[in-house]
Design a protein that fits this description.
69 residues; 88% helix; 3 helices; elongated
């Protein structure tokens, strides 16, 4: 059973996870569009590098959140 403080912390963490996944997926889709459809290979590769950066930032933030508990 979760306490009231644990329940109130669960929702922002879940929203953060969803936001980071949506941002990284949007970056991936933009990268594929630029690389294959717009024929701008260098921009497609550059935007594709954002995906692991976004996910790494999320892991860093979530690790800091867990250490505070």
């Amino acid at each position: 059973m979760q306490t009231l403080s644990t329940q109130s912390n669960t929702r922002p963490v879940t929203m953060l996870k969803i936001t980071l996944l949506v941002a990284s997926f949007a970056s991936f889709l933009l990268s594929v569009y630029l690389y294959f459809i717009a024929d701008d290979t260098s921009a497609g590769i550059f935007v594709g590098i954002w995906v692991p950066s976004i996910l790494s930032l999320g892991a860093l933030i979530l690790a800091g959140e867990r250490s505070q508990r």
